[in-house]
Amino acid sequence: MKHRDISLSSEDRGGCSISGCNNSTKRSIPRKRVEKIGELTLQDSNRKVNLCSDCYRIFKKATKKDRTMESLGR
Ligand SMILES: [Zn+2]
């Protein structure tokens, strides 16, 4: 019998990558960008992060705040 690799990545499951959230995903975002804001806790280590609409809203809000801080620094 051949050994079969079972993928546990959420990319294949199609669920949200945020810890404690299991909604279906709407957007795929590079992991770095999500880690940078620090508002969302990732439950896997994929390079791409899948976000549901709720988590994407949090992400968007956080990046907006980041951008505001950037413009204030100028
Ligand atoms: Zn989510």
From TrEMBL:
Region (Disordered): 1-29
Residue ranges with Basic and acidic residues bias: 1-14
This protein's name: Uncharacterized protein
Native source species: Marine Group III euryarchaeote
